[in-house]
Amino acid sequence: MLNTLIVGASGYAGAELTAYLNRHPHMNITALAVSAQSADAGKLLSELHPQLKGIVDLPLQPLVNVAEAAKGIDVVFLATAHEVSHDIAPEFLAAGCVVFDLSGAFRVQGSDFYRQYYGFEHQHADWLAKAVYGLAEWQSEKIKEAQLIAVPGCYPTAAQLALKPLIDKQLLNLDQWPVINAVSGVSGAGRKASVTTSFCEVSLQPYGLFNHRHQPEISAHLGIPVIFTPHLGSFPRGILETITCRLKTGVTAQDVAAAYHEAYDDKPLVRLYDKGVPALKSVVGLPFCDIGFAVQGEHLIAVAAEDNLLKGAAAQAVQCLNIRFGFPETQSLI
Amino acid sequence: MLNTLIVGASGYAGAELTAYLNRHPHMNITALAVSAQSADAGKLLSELHPQLKGIVDLPLQPLVNVAEAAKGIDVVFLATAHEVSHDIAPEFLAAGCVVFDLSGAFRVQGSDFYRQYYGFEHQHADWLAKAVYGLAEWQSEKIKEAQLIAVPGCYPTAAQLALKPLIDKQLLNLDQWPVINAVSGVSGAGRKASVTTSFCEVSLQPYGLFNHRHQPEISAHLGIPVIFTPHLGSFPRGILETITCRLKTGVTAQDVAAAYHEAYDDKPLVRLYDKGVPALKSVVGLPFCDIGFAVQGEHLIAVAAEDNLLKGAAAQAVQCLNIRFGFPETQSLI
Amino acid sequence: MLNTLIVGASGYAGAELTAYLNRHPHMNITALAVSAQSADAGKLLSELHPQLKGIVDLPLQPLVNVAEAAKGIDVVFLATAHEVSHDIAPEFLAAGCVVFDLSGAFRVQGSDFYRQYYGFEHQHADWLAKAVYGLAEWQSEKIKEAQLIAVPGCYPTAAQLALKPLIDKQLLNLDQWPVINAVSGVSGAGRKASVTTSFCEVSLQPYGLFNHRHQPEISAHLGIPVIFTPHLGSFPRGILETITCRLKTGVTAQDVAAAYHEAYDDKPLVRLYDKGVPALKSVVGLPFCDIGFAVQGEHLIAVAAEDNLLKGAAAQAVQCLNIRFGFPETQSLI
Amino acid sequence: MLNTLIVGASGYAGAELTAYLNRHPHMNITALAVSAQSADAGKLLSELHPQLKGIVDLPLQPLVNVAEAAKGIDVVFLATAHEVSHDIAPEFLAAGCVVFDLSGAFRVQGSDFYRQYYGFEHQHADWLAKAVYGLAEWQSEKIKEAQLIAVPGCYPTAAQLALKPLIDKQLLNLDQWPVINAVSGVSGAGRKASVTTSFCEVSLQPYGLFNHRHQPEISAHLGIPVIFTPHLGSFPRGILETITCRLKTGVTAQDVAAAYHEAYDDKPLVRLYDKGVPALKSVVGLPFCDIGFAVQGEHLIAVAAEDNLLKGAAAQAVQCLNIRFGFPETQSLI
């Protein structure tokens, strides 16, 4: 049994993570924590997330002293704001914990990136360099050795899973940048109150045109430029990405299918569609990323769907945990 | 042409009111105002409510000095918080304006009511005594003479329209209190950010059991006790009320129908169903209150539906305006 | 391992049931069946319910010959239309199978009931007499001995769980019939195409006033008259019931709480709220029925919420299975 | 006053059209019609669309004999299936009526198009050749002279309004095909029952990849190839299109803005965003097409939003009517 601490359990991804770990046979949830200033400190997790009543009734403890909190803890999950993860991850790491960080604080190499897209100066170049990007289907060897796993963002997970096999097999004509149109459920914006995410204001809308921080995360890890256009959708959870690419002359639908099958046939959390493309409902509440595609001439449309809180956050974190510690990859996920 | 000022135009009811008055042939919108502290002061109404872009692009002016703002104004609409209406209505009234107040500040006689349900001491007993309750179908004679019209709350409008004909005709056995189960869209909670009304948190739920302030408003104006159970529904607008009553022995469905028809056959904004009961969609975006019912033995279920922002707020305010100034009752509403 | 056949697996409750049984350690799904005429015969379950892709990819086999289909089967689940269950359950029973019927065909004693509310003549008075009503929290002793378990309807489950403790403790003044206002998600209407349940038509609406067949099911099993008013809600799943009752003089909130705690403190699938009342989201996707209440004077409002497809159908069926065969009551449900 | 007949008034677009024409000061609705076989024949329009109760309570008459129906009619609106419009429009035209056809039957020149995308042989090459494509902002001179106006499809209206100014000003590098990602509300699929559009089945999903019939309609009228990917969205009405294009080297955001302003500054039903892009809610229930855009380097993202039933159907039909007969362009629309 591994003792685990979940910081930021009060949020949507944190609650999902807690539910997964609560039923994981090798994990012992030692404590749930929130930031010391949080108005939620002292409440039960199930007061905020009543679906967990009777399942996980642990209190949310204020995280006052990281060194203290790290005592006896084997594994830490950080479902915290980027700046918070940036500040506290190194302390947990120094205490010997294995850290799974669901924030963006350690996902991309280079301090410029953090200055430009996250608005802060990254202070932990050493840990940033050591962090392993937890795109589970592609990084399992590195994850097994890592002490700090930076779990990918919700949008980048689906985008990379759809594009990486095509890039690796050199099927794309990159003169034309892939166009990633993505629609996310509102839970992607987190649990705090805001007019933007209030019930009566939400309506399908693009945002962050040409400047969403997930665009450089996708580009950095794929090694190609992309056009990434996120949209807020009028549903609570799930992400659907419609990705339009130019194929190299002569590349066929069969080539595309072969690339996907080679990449994912032995990966339990990616489901390939031999015909048709996924709908959002296929993945909501489930840990999968579903991928389908269509080809016409030199044009390819790939469609990837996932639950933003699961394969886009909590489930992928647990998948990385399972890989890191040698548990079955889908343990407690399916 | 009457010059009009709309205070609180930034909210959902305020925006609907502005749209109605903007197309009213006898009204000239002199200004839109918000409280001086509002973060929305200085913005265009259409920035907050983009559906009004190109239709009403007036700015939201901070209301700094009521006496100043009242100059040259014939009619004021207050779509403001109860406390704000309570404070500023008397100043507009003193300046000679006719005031239509959409808040609860002048709806119920008796300072106890405000102490208990609104948490403030009412300072304007004189105006409270003079205020006419703007339940338009039942108060038109008084409205014609009034300087201060207290437009009824959203829940009370539907409840009273459904119950008042039955009470007046003495059809109910009041040993058994009418049970009013009401479900309201989220816009009823207003436009400010709150976790409770955030997209991912909203879900059908009763609230305010036995202590919602609309229960005594309903009871006071109907003159009978009722059990009123409001629910938050997962839709932006509309109210549906399912009202279960005991009929006096011998009262028939025909008696009930006759009471409704007598009350409303000449009322253009109440639509009676000869068979079946209304669905929410029948009234969303429209100024009507729809009423249907079913009887079995001594039991009656009446169903009333309205748009909480329209017949439950803005449309009824305009209906009162039309009555007050002798315009056709549905002017600019249909 | 028990061999099991699921008939009607193509529907919403059938698919949930299949997912539960698929992960049940003591159950072996031998086959999934649909009626021989069904257009879905021959398809994979996961074509109709893509969320099950990679989890349950079994085909839907046409049920041509019941005797043949029953061979080697220990347990049969019928998630079929009432008439179909009525016709085929006796054949499976004759073959020695234990049958869990999710339809209404064996829920209420008396052929009059079926003539009046279901529109058919019940042909199997013997099996009807032997059928055990599977309201799991209240019938566990009988369930252990039963060969035919009639799993209760979705509305009746929540209504009875909320009312039965109060009736048993004689807390209610039954001169006033309990008023049950219930709102159900659209999945309650099943999966077949209809204008009524099409996306653009659904809107909060009462239906079946005074004549829904679940009213007599509730009354028959509680032994009291009730007023039951179902509503269609604009959400896919879940039921919320707001139940208004008259208490006997002198009965207190403490008495009500005590009755609930005595009934359910050792029942893992009923969650009691010590303060507040449940929201729909607390139970969607979960096997629980959540119950809360408020009292004022002699008036009680009890609120019960459940997922109509789970505690209102599939989860309760599995709960009955677990009780029947001595497995832990929540096996594969939590 | 022009006498008008509306065929297909029972559908979603037909009902909206009827509401517009009902309040049009120059139009007299002589009759509403549905096909002779329709199960809705004989019902009141307001039985199907209860929001119209008390507003338009006309009956839906079966269309038995076109020549008979055309007598005394000046203007006919066809909100009918493509094949029906194809069959009956010529008869109304022969009788001298001006016909506004909301179907696809006369939108694109060339019989091949109908064979390939609509599955029928077009029998009326003469009328097809004379038909004017009613993209109102661009065809007003031709509309004024036309007897048959083919009102554009919902997706093509928004796509063309967003792209046409850019193409006309030669701002686009067409080596890269514009990528049109469009999400439509479910009402776009019409009012008939289908599992696909049932409440529990709808979920964000692409469909018709590379083969939706609106792609060639868009391409034919713009004169360029495009990639058009429609999606079904989980909302009743509205269309949002996110269009990604390559600009020619040197083209700036100012050039794009200038092209839009030149095209639409005097067009009352296109609203341009000087900053930001539209959300769906900005246009639902309104006759506008809203357009905004962002540029980065040589990449342009244009976003267009409209109500699929209004600017994408009924409102554009009325706009064409107003242009055709010299009424103010927005008469009865705003």
How would you characterize this protein structure?
Four copies of one chain form a homotetramer. With 334 residues, chain A is an alpha/beta fold. Chain A has two domains: 2-130, 3-Layer(aba) Sandwich (Rossmann fold); 154-309, Dihydrodipicolinate Reductase, domain 2, CATH 3.30.360.10. In chain A, 31% of the residues lie in helices and 22% in strands. Chain A is built from eleven helices and 14 strands. The first copy, chain A, has helices at residues 12-22, 45-48, 66-70, 82-94, 111-118, 125-130, 140-145, 154-168, 214-222, 253-264, 310-325; strands spanning 2-7, 27-35, 60-63, 75-78, 98-101, 132-133, 148-150, 179-184, 205-206, 227-232, 239-246, 270-272, 289-296, 299-306. Chain A has a seven-stranded parallel β-sheet, with helices on both faces. In chain A, α7 links the parallel β6 (132-133) and β7. In chain A, α1 (12-22) runs parallel beside α11 and α8 (154-168) runs parallel beside α9. Chain A is globular, with a radius of gyration of 19 Å. The two termini of chain A are 20 Å apart. The model of chain A has no long low-confidence stretch (mean pLDDT 97). Chain A binds chain D through residues 176-177, 179, 181, 183, 201, 203-206, 209-210, 227, 229, 231, 233-235, 238, 240, 242, 244, 246, 277-282, 284, 294, 296, 299, 301, 303, and chain D through 176-177, 179, 181, 183, 201, 203-206, 209-210, 227, 229, 231, 233-235, 238, 240, 242, 244, 246, 277-282, 284, 294, 296, 299, 301, 303. Chains A, B, C, D: GO terms for molecular function: N-acetyl-gamma-glutamyl-phosphate reductase activity; NAD binding; NADP+ binding.
